[in-house]
Amino acid sequence: MTRRWTVGVDFGATNVKVGLVSPTGHVAAAQALESRDVGRPGRFVEAVSEAAERLARSVGERPATLRGVGVGVPGPVDVRREVVEFLVNVPGWRRVPLRRWLERRLRCRCAVDNDANLAALGEFAFGAGRGARGLVCLTLGTGVGGGLILDGSLVHGASGSAGEVGHMVIDPRGPRCGCGARGCLEAHVGTAALLRMGRQALREGAGPLRRLTREAGGRLTPAVLSRAARLGDARAQRIWAAFGHWLGIGVANLANLLNPDRVILGGGVAGAWSLFYPSLSGTVRAQALATAARSVRIVRARLGTRAGIVGAAVLIWGAKGGKPA
Ligand SMILES: [Zn+2]
Q1: Are residues 146 and 288 in the same domain?
Q2: Domain check: are 108 and 143 in the same one?
Q3: By C-alpha distance, which of 260, 259, 264, 255 is closest to 283?
Q4: 179 alpha carbon – ligand 1 mean position (Å)
Q5: How confident is the model at residue 3 (pLDDT cuts 50, 70, 90)?
Q6: Which CATH number does the domain housing residue 57 bear?
Q7: 268, 289, 279, 315: which is closest to 138 by C-alpha?
Q8: Is the overall model pTM greater than 0.70, yes or no?
Q9: Structural domain containing residue 206
Q10: 121-167: per-residue pLDDT in tens?
């Protein structure tokens, strides 16, 4: 049987993951390319195509017999999903017609979308979003990515930037965000905000946080902050409570605006779940309309780092609910 396999590509900060996805959403094999080496558009097309060819060969296929190749990129894609407008933190990408270039090289169906949208699509089809009608998927890390699915379809908006929940303003007098605005969700719960609060706590006193930071060679990270909180460091625990509070304000706004039945939290920082969830859910209950708060379930992402690859494959299937036709 041909056209069973799909290749999904996830363009991340440190590497580009290329995976072979079965019709049941299983990642059968994957390769990682260094983002640094494949950063430029021309080189990216060539390196990803070679990886797709190798993966196709490993199951006795060639690119032309695949269902297609889906790609998630860390930046906005135009509304017709033809052109990558630019990439965050990757130079050399300005209005790149990535879909056309890949199709010309691989001679199979290709599709391109934003990486956070594809993480949402992956979770919707095969992860924590299964069975949901409407969901918001937040990826917590250096930035706060967001993907939005309503009535079973990915929402792109007028120019392709819908779902940028990291730049919802939750306190207009809050800290400056990387986007230039003030008080975005990302400026409150992104890694930089966590570390800013952590450094303040380090200045204030001794305790597990100071000891663990020293043991980590003086490097404060979200992982150090969560270990300290678990060891009973009161300052670190307060930081996670503040994190949960700000995230809860954001989720309450999303619940009121969109009335999703699921909010999915993924990304490395979601690993601190038990430290911030009580404060998060308390804030949502206090701030969201009762009907919206009652109907939303806040859950952890299930697919981990595979979400982008799986979502890129679902993009090719173009299926509501993710089942291949
Ligand atoms: Zn912002």
Answers
A1: yes
A2: no
A3: 255
A4: 4
A5: low
A6: 3.30.420.40
A7: 268
A8: yes
A9: 133-301
A10: 999 999 999 999 999 999 999 889 999 999 989 999 998 889 999 99
